[in-house]
Design a protein that fits this description.
With 146 residues, the protein is mostly helical. It contains four helices and no strands. 6% of the residues are buried.
Length: 146
């Protein structure tokens, strides 16, 4: 049986597609694991008492609302950036202003997240705080500390 050029091209395209799918899946798995690390750590590794768990649930419910608002604000800023880029088609004053707005919204989200981390920390006893601090540092630096 003779293999033609079309079959070779199709085989190469399938191989590339399979590689892309594998890379995407690995990236998603890694990001999901990293996103859940601090939350899972607090709930599963710090042996919270009932009072701490209830306080943490209230904190997380409030932060979920705040985060949603900040995420929507960031999305709106990104939409304004897209509109400015479409309008100017270069790095003009409207694009620069829109970028500054996006950065401001990103900063607001980061500040709120750090405030939430410190609010969680305040619920912990000193031993839990030490473990929490190590986990936060590890999450921020990507180092496992092992």
């Amino acid at each position: 049986m003779k293999i033609g050029a079309i079959q070779i091209v199709l085989a190469v395209l399938l191989a590339v597609a399979a590689g892309c799918i594998g890379a995407f899946a690995a990236s998603e798995w890694r990001e999901t694991a990293q996103r859940q690390t601090l939350h899972d750590f607090v709930h599963e590794e710090l042996d919270l008492d009932a009072r701490q768990a209830a306080q943490l649930d209230r904190l997380e419910a409030r932060f979920a609302v705040e985060r949603k608002e900040l995420d929507l604000s960031l999305r709106a800023a990104n939409a304004r950036l897209a509109a400015a880029m479409d309008e100017e088609h270069e790095y003009g004053p409207k694009v620069a202003e829109a970028i500054d707005d996006v950065h401001g919204r990103m900063g607001d989200l980061q500040k709120a997240t750090v405030e939430h981390v410190f609010a969680m920390r305040a619920l912990l006893d000193p031993g839990q705080q030490a473990r929490f601090d190590r986990q936060v540092a590890s999450s921020l630096t990507g180092e496992t500390g092992e």
